[in-house]
Write a structure and sequence with these properties.
Blueprint lengths: L10 H13 L4 H15 L10 H12 L1
């Protein structure tokens, strides 16, 4: 059985996303399925998520004061 996943993004992001995927020979649907399969297989995201370095620097400076 298949299901549908919906997401809201702004038009510019969607257009740029589709352009990159088309250059790779992929559709949005295929790319999202590959992403989901990778998350499940690796039990995590296929990229690092971190806060901006400036935020960490400010926090570090505040702790030393």
């Amino acid at each position: 059985m298949e299901t549908t996943i919906r997401s809201r993004v702004n038009n510019d992001l969607k257009d740029q996303f589709e352009t990159v995927l088309q250059d790779c020979g992929l559709t949005v649907s295929v790319a999202l399925r590959l992403f989901a399969e990778n998350v499940v297989r690796n039990e995590g995201l296929p990229f690092e998520i971190s806060r901006k370095p400036l935020v960490r620097l400010c926090e570090s400076m505040c702790q030393t004061e």
